[in-house]
């Protein structure tokens, strides 16, 4: 099995706050890893480290065999890694002054020098794939939250990432729009995309995850197959958390 992400003994601080504590975590190609845990436990920080949005103080991190150094080290692989890793945030972060299609075309054209005609065709194909082929020429503010988030996913996919990171992609959505975004993610998973997903959607986690990881105060205290973690949590922290959210 090819490992896409490898973390060993990773530690991250914000000032004196020890946010990630000795994290060991590997993600294999095609694997869907869902990360759960209370607010403030370090879930966002963990996945933001994977594409270098956060620096870490010590330990080892490799993405696609390319090492990201701890703070102060040589970050020459950062640009390469970012090309391989797509990220979708809670807030969609689309460029408001660009149409939906231009939002999707921008990174391939700028970062990969993809010719305009190719970027255009890719954008149209991806918009079809996320179910909004008819919204290509609109501006983001004219779309619903669910549609905007689907554009954000298409935009990330346009770079042909080897790994997708999702940080609570449905938390800012009205309830009736959560399903359409989860459907797109479910399809991606089925097609074999490697994914790390922070979510509070436990139904999705149970159905789609290959592995569920529970983080408590910056430590992985439990992980396993979703049915095992949800139905038979071993750690009392996990039990307490799940009894609050399930
Ligand atoms: P989660 O995503 O699980 O809610 P985060 O990873 O966002 O948790 O945050 C983990 C801890 O780090 C929290 O205590 C949070 O307040 C703190 N934190 C997050 N980002 C910063 C930052 N940029 N500066 C200082 N503290 C931060
Ligand atoms: Mg978070």
TrEMBL record:
This protein's source sits in the domain of life called Bacteria
Where, by residue number, does the polypeptide cross the bilayer? Answer: none
User: Per its record, what are the GO molecular function terms?
Assistant: ATP binding
Is rRNA-binding found in the keyword set? no
Tell me which UniProt keywords the record has, alphabetically: Amino-acid transport, ATP-binding, Cell inner membrane, Cell membrane, Membrane, Nucleotide-binding, Transport
Give the InterPro entries listed for this entry. Answer: AAA+_ATPase, ABC_ATPase_HisP-typ, ABC_transporter-like_ATP-bd, ABC_transporter-like_CS, MetN_ABC_transporter-like, P-loop_NTPase
Residue ranges of domain ABC transporter in the record: 5-242
Q: How does it sit in the membrane?
A: Peripheral membrane protein
| Subcellular localization, as worded in the UniProt entry | Cell inner membrane
Q: Which family does it belong to?
A: Belongs to the ABC transporter superfamily.
- Descriptive protein name: Amino acid ABC transporter ATP-binding protein
Q: Which organism is it from?
A: Marinobacter aromaticivorans
């Amino acid at each position: 099995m090819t490992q896409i992400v490898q973390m060993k003994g990773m530690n991250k601080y914000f000032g004196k706050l020890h946010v990630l504590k000795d994290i060991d975590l590997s993600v294999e190609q095609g694997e869907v890893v869902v990360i759960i845990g209370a607010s403030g436990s370090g879930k966002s920080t963990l996945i933001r480290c994977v594409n270098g949005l956060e620096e870490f103080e010590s330990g080892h991190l490799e993405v696609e065999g390319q090492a990201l150094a701890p703070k102060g080290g040589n970050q020459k692989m950062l640009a390469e890694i970012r090309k391989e890793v797509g990220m979708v945030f809670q807030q969609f972060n689309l460029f408001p002054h660009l149409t939906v299609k231009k939002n999707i075309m921008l990174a391939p054209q700028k970062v990969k020098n993809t010719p305009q005609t190719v970027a255009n065709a890719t954008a149209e194909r991806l918009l079809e794939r996320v179910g909004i082929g008819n919204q290509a020429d609109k501006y983001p503010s004219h779309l619903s939250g669910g549609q905007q988030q689907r554009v954000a996913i298409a935009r990330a996919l346009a770079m042909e990432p080897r790994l997708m990171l999702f940080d609570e992609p449905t938390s800012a959505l009205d309830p009736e729009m959560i399903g359409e975004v989860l459907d797109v993610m479910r399809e991606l998973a089925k097609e074999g995309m490697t994914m790390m997903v922070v979510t509070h959607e436990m139904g999705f986690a149970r159905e789609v995850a290959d592995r569920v990881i529970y983080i408590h105060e910056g430590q992985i205290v439990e992980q396993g197959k979703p049915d095992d973690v949800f139905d038979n949590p071993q750690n009392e922290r996990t039990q307490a958390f799940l009894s609050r959210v399930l």
